[in-house]
Amino acid sequence: MKDKTLAGVLAIIPATGGLGVHHFYLGNIDKGIIYLLLSWTGIPVVLGLVDGIMYLVKSDAEFQANYRNWFCASPKGPV
After folding, report:
1. Which residue from 7, 52, 68, 73 has the least number of CB within 10 angstroms?
2. Distances from the Cα of 11 to the Cαs of 1, 26, 30, 51, 79, in angstroms?
């Protein structure tokens, strides 16, 4: 279970959001690598700010439905 507030703060802070730390925290490794590769352009800083706001305005249930751990135990296997 991921913390919505922590993900939002990691995204909004330019030093971490611009490097895609919030994506690594949420398990989106591909997006995190793209943010790292583009970090010299400043574009990920703006996108991180948008991501952070989106995370913080979502309800807890909606956030968890979108960003829960893919390896969580489930009767049907990985979710």
Report:
1. 73
2. 18, 11, 16, 6, 25
